[in-house]
Amino acid sequence: MSLAAAASDTTAVYLIKNMDCPMEEALIRKRLASVEGITGLEFNLMQRVLTVHHELASTAVIEEALSSIDMIPEPIGQKNEAAPRKFESTPIPWKKLAAAGVFAALSEGMEFALEWGVIAHPAEGFSLVGALPLIFAVAAILLGGLGTYRKGWLAVSNLNLNINALMSVAVTGAVLIGQYPEAAMVMVLFNVSEAIEARALDRARNAISKLLALSPETATVQQNDGSWTELDIRQVQPGRRVRVKPGERIALDGIVVAGHSAVNQAPITGESVPVEKTGGDTVFAGTINTSGSLEFEVTAGASDTTLARIIHAVEDAQGRRAPMQRMVDSFARWYTPAVFLLALLTAVVPPLFMGREWLDSIYTGLVLLVIGCPCALVISTPVSVVSGMAAATRNGILVKGGMFLEQGRLLRCLALDKTGTLTHGQPELTDVAALGGSDEQKAFILAASLAGRSDHPVSRAVAEKAEEEHKTLLPVEDFEAVAGQGVRGVIDGVRYSLGSLRMMDQAGMASDELKQRAAALEAGGRTVVTLADEHKAVAVFAVADTIRESSVEAVRDLKKLGVRTVMLTGDNEKVAQVVAEQAGVDEFRAGLLPEDKLSAVEELEKNWGHTGMAGDGINDAPALARADIGFAMAGGGTDTAMETADVALMDDDLRKIPRFIRISRATHAILVQNIALALGVKALFFAMAFAGCATMWMAVFADVGTALVVVANGLRAAGNPAE
Question: What span, in angstroms and rounded, lies between the C-alpha atoms of 374 and 713?
Fold first, then answer.
């Protein structure tokens, strides 16, 4: 069965609460392999979700097959369509485990008392006192281990070896050779360790529940009669008007239509300071309105908000295993049968060919079975990867899969789009210069008055600057737009023109002073417009797409991390050179079409190794898809760039890329530590077992301790390794 399925296939998505590790995945794969009509399986073990691609008329046969191996399926809707879920903690029978522990301790105590003569019993024949260690041990095993035996039998009956099968054989063998107290203690300790691991994994799973808690369940919505009513957010459709008070969380995405406030967007974008919001600004579900009251028009339903998309993406990402995780899972698949075979040979070969006692050899083989438990190894990678992705999400970095998180540490070169990525993507007024002794402020107001009537991006930049500075504009009469040149209009009885140097030249107003000023500004990568009255040029205005301050810091940080930066742009050479110098990139390439950017990324990858691409537009999509890791500017970027990219930067801040690389490196370091620790402890106890100084209960203690250490170490990645 393939992991991918044809687009025409039907999918069934199930929550399986006792599906936790690759052993159970292997059991499910083997069982469903016999079901005709299943075309593919996808496993998300961290979220306990199984997606089945099939061509069946009914899913009943799938559900029956899963139930037959004790994997009870709960349908949860179509993939990516089901609402984000809050996760329930794994139910643990602590009372049964406590009682089992008491009986195991009693078995150990009675065995000690009988062995050392504290309690006497007949030397021959059956004695109830002498049988007490066995009775207490069986009670402990039945209370704590029936579930283990059931899972072990299901695995063996489906020709699959897992840890439950190993532990069942080890405990049963210990009872048969008379090691009753040890058999009981091993079963109790094993189930306690399983319970502790389940709790630790719940912590990693509930990283998404913390995201769910960001969004309130209700919103205050305006009704047709103008009144306000509190409604469940799932009932609120796009276009409705919502009010949010100071201190409240914003429930849905929208556009502000009334009010002014500062909004804490850190949960979504990672920005450290609140952002001012007023009419026309965007607000996100899950953010906090800190000061004034706001009213906004809803732009996305509850299942399609930015927060909901983040949650779904994180859920999907947890199902996409990192290369090291896939390696560990593959290793575990042959490791367990190998351990079983080694234990069998250890129990049989020495007595047959080396003259060793049967009971001693069998006991050593049983110890190897206990030591062979791969739990610490197989949980070390998913916990670390999910914790790393949680840390990235809290920093406003949405990673679409564990493989991209792991590859981030390998980046050696980063290609950067210019407009909207390194720069703001919007022209801004940068320079105002009066000519011939004219009044600069008066010229600015005149120019803004004309520009306010135009929709050209350069004119809009002049008008928006005046609006920012709260300038009072003057009425314009006989307004006229001259195609490709500029605009004209009458203000206070005087006809003024605002336009290009060519417009001035055609009107005979391109003085030497104007040409010199314009040449100097254009050399700096700016676009120049001129204001003129009926007789002469009055002032020069320069407009440019300004570089983001955060871009300069990001490029500097990337260099410190050993990453080469290359700017790719469709702009002309002169503008590209100015922006490249301001940003501090290592090199730039200008005049590129989308296919040229794609070729540039391929060339950079060949020359420098792992290469990333950061962009925001449709023209960046081919290069984003080709790069080893594509970074999309999620705030102002296009949907095409968002869908194509592997990592989304939620507030268009390039400083998040070096932060992502640091998180990737920290997560990888933790992965290596965990794998080394898990394998190292196994190797040590294998050696101790062959030396005859390792017992079964010691092996369980070591396995429990190792599992707890790797989980705790993996959860460190959820801290803030980006800082």
Answer: 17
